[in-house]
Every structure is written in structure tokens, then in C-alpha cells.
């Protein structure tokens, strides 16, 4: 018993020593989607401010694939020292429901630090399609069951989950076409090969303003100040279809508590920074701070909600 106690005290001391000198080298933000995606833009909007405050560079590394499970698995099974931080989207909550073998336990192997931002997805189409409202799109889909298609930033991504929730509530049948990331999906909507896409507003807003994409509705319960003229999907006639896209910071669950605390404090401080608020505002995003405990409870409820949608839509990872 005495040896066990000494071992525990030794491990705690090691963790404390690690945290005391943290960070002593560059930190990596691992983003599981391509550059230019909503998650990537939010990560970049806060990284510079956190880097200056923490006295170490923060490097963004994009590692897309399998709905974010490749990047999440790398963090879950990697060194729990706080030097590799997963910056993931709300699609993180869907993955355990649709992938039979992701190699990690979403709730046990990973710990949330805090959400960074909440923002709408916006349902966008090519203006040449001729749909002037969400009702037009729904009518077109119902007239041709299974013939329209919708893009996503990958199977299991937040854009995929949003589209499935909308499709179920609207009662339409359409073909899902996944891409490696948001920019690729938007390119194919602009090109006309895909009919619609629930794009993160952070990525789609410039293209909507330039007239390359037409916004039919936003996913959130309330309208976005960035597109005040665009109704929500609920306002546009699809009850129960609202969905909030969030982006959060996550680390391996074995990360020492002092390191977790430092990352949390720095992220919260950065979100309160006027320059970060302005950057997020330009992306149509709002800072979304939570305590560590609240964020992990939130992730649990999101996992449960996503599992219900996955079951109803019979979603499976590829």
C-alpha cells in the first residue's frame, strides 16, 4: 500500500513538473478537415492570440479523413502532454454512432477543453438552379425522390449531420456526396454537380456575398446577423431542423490537470480578446466559452442526440 501511495505521489509530481514548464515548445492544433473549412478558420482565428499569450508558436496541421476520426485517434492515442490539441467540429459527436471501429472511445479517451465558437451552417445552392426559397428546394426534392444530391465535408462531419437532420425533418430523399472538406464541397455546388450543401457560414459567407452561391436558409434557431435577410430552416417551413455548428478544443484524457487548466484559461482569455471577437464576427461566428466540466457534459448530450439521428437516417461510415 505504501509503495502504491508513493507511486501515485510520484506521478502527480511528474505531472505538476510537466505543467510548470508548459509550454516549453511549439503547440500543434490538429484540424481534421482541409484548409478553408469552418473548423480550420476558427482554429486560425484564435491560434495567433493564444500563441502570443503562451509564448510559443501554435502550428495548424490539417489532417482530413474519415469524418475527423483519423485526427481524433491520433490525439486520443498520442502523448497526453498538451502539445497536440484537436480542434474539431460538432461532427465529433456523430462519429461513434456511424463508425464501428474508430480505435478510441470518444467520451473516455478524449477530454474537451472548451468550445471556441458557435456558428450557423447555411444551406447554399447554385443560383442557376432557380430555387428562390427553401420551399422550392424541398418541392424539387419531393418531385424527384432520390435524384437530387447534397454535398458534405465528409461522412460524419457536422455538415453531414446537419444535412441528415434537415432531410429527415423535411421528409425528402436525396443522395449524399461526401468530400474531403468544405472548400471541395462548395466548389462542386458552384460548378452545379451538387444541388445543395449545408456549408459553415465562416466558409460560405464571401461566396454568398459575391453571388456565386445563393443562401436559402441558416441552420440555427435564430437568424444570423451576417445574413439577416435569410430565414432559418424552421422559419422556412421545416420544424425541428435547427442545428448549431460548434468548434471546440479537445485533448487526450490523460493530459495533466494543470496543463488542461492552462489551455482552458488561455482559450477563454483569447475568446474575450477584441481582435478575436472581430475575426469571429467576420466569419459569422460567436465565441462559445464553457468550463471543462460543462463542455464534457455538452459533448455527452451531443453524442446521444447524434446517435438518434444516425439511427433514424441509417447512417454508416465508409
Question: What does this molecule look like?
Answer:
The protein is built from eleven helices and eleven strands. With 318 residues, the protein is an alpha/beta fold. The strands form two sheets. The protein has a six-stranded mixed β-sheet with strand order 2-1-3-10-4-11, with helices on both faces. The longest helix has 22 residues, at 292-313. The radius of gyration is 20 Å and the shape is globular.
Topology (elements, then pairings):
Layout: H1 2-20, E1 27-31, H2 38-54, E2 58-62, H3 69-77, E3 84-89, H4 95-98, E4 110-119, E5 121-125, H5 134-143, E6 149-152, H6 158-170, E7 175-178, H7 182-190, E8 196-200, H8 201-209, E9 214-218, E10 245-252, H9 257-271, H10 274-282, E11 286-287, H11 292-313
Parallel strand pairs: 1-2, 1-3, 6-7, 6-8
Antiparallel strand pairs: 3-10, 4-10, 4-11, 5-8, 5-9
Give the % helix: 40-55%
Biggest sheet overview: 6 strands, mixed
In one word, what is the shape?
globular
Structural class estimated from helices and strands = alpha/beta
Radius of gyration, taken over Cα atoms and rounded to an integer in Å: 20 Å
The amount of beta strand, in percent, is 15-25%
- The whole-number mean of residue pLDDT values reads 93
Oligomer: single chain
Order of helices and strands: HEHEHEHEEHEHEHEHEEHHEH
Q: What is the terminal separation in angstroms?
A: 49 Å
pLDDT < 50 runs, ≥5 residues: 4-8
The counted number of beta strands is 11
Tally the helices: 11
Spatial strand sequence of the major β-sheet: 2-1-3-10-4-11
Amino acid at each position: 500500500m505504501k509503495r502504491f501511495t508513493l507511486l501515485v505521489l510520484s506521478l502527480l509530481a511528474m505531472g505538476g513538473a510537466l505543467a510548470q514548464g508548459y509550454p516549453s515548445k511549439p503547440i500543434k492544433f490538429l484540424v481534421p478537415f482541409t484548409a478553408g473549412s469552418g473548423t480550420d478558420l476558427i482554429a486560425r482565428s484564435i491560434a495567433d492570440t493564444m500563441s502570443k499569450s503562451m509564448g510559443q508558436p501554435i502550428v495548424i496541421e490539417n489532417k482530413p479523413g474519415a469524418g475527423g476520426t483519423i485526427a481524433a485517434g491520433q490525439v486520443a492515442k498520442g502523448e497526453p502532454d498538451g502539445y497536440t490539441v484537436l480542434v474539431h467540429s460538432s461532427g465529433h459527436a456523430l462519429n461513434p454512432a456511424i463508425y464501428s471501429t474508430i480505435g478510441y472511445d470518444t467520451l473516455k479517451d478524449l477530454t474537451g477543453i472548451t468550445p471556441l465558437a458557435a456558428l450557423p451552417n447555411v444551406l447554399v445552392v447554385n443560383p442557376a438552379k432557380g430555387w428562390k426559397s427553401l420551399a422550392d428546394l424541398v418541392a424539387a426534392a419531393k418531385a424527384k425522390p432520390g435524384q437530387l444530391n447534397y454535398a458534405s465535408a465528409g461522412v460524419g462531419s457536422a455538415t453531414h449531420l446537419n444535412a441528415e437532420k434537415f432531410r429527415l425533418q423535411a421528409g425528402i430523399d436525396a443522395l449524399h456526396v461526401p468530400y474531403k472538406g468544405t472548400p471541395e464541397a462548395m466548389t462542386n455546388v458552384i460548378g452545379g454537380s451538387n444541388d445543395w450543401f449545408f456549408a459553415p457560414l465562416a466558409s460560405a459567407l464571401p461566396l454568398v456575398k459575391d453571388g456565386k452561391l445563393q443562401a436559402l436558409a441558416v441552420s440555427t434557431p435564430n437568424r444570423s446577423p451576417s445574413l439577416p435577410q435569410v430565414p432559418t430552416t424552421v422559419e422556412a417551413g421545416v420544424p425541428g431542423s435547427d442545428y448549431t455548428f460548434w468548434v471546440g478544443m479537445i485533448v487526450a484524457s490523460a493530459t495533466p490537470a494543470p496543463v488542461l487548466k492552462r489551455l482552458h484559461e488561455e482559450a477563454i482569455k483569447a475568446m474575450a480578446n477584441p481582435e478575436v471577437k472581430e475575426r469571429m464576427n467576420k466569419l459569422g461566428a460567436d465565441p462559445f466559452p464553457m468550463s471543462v466540466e460543462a463542455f464534457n457534459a455538452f459533448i455527452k448530450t451531443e453524442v446521444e442526440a447524434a446517435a438518434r439521428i444516425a439511427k433514424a437516417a441509417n447512417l454508416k461510415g465508409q
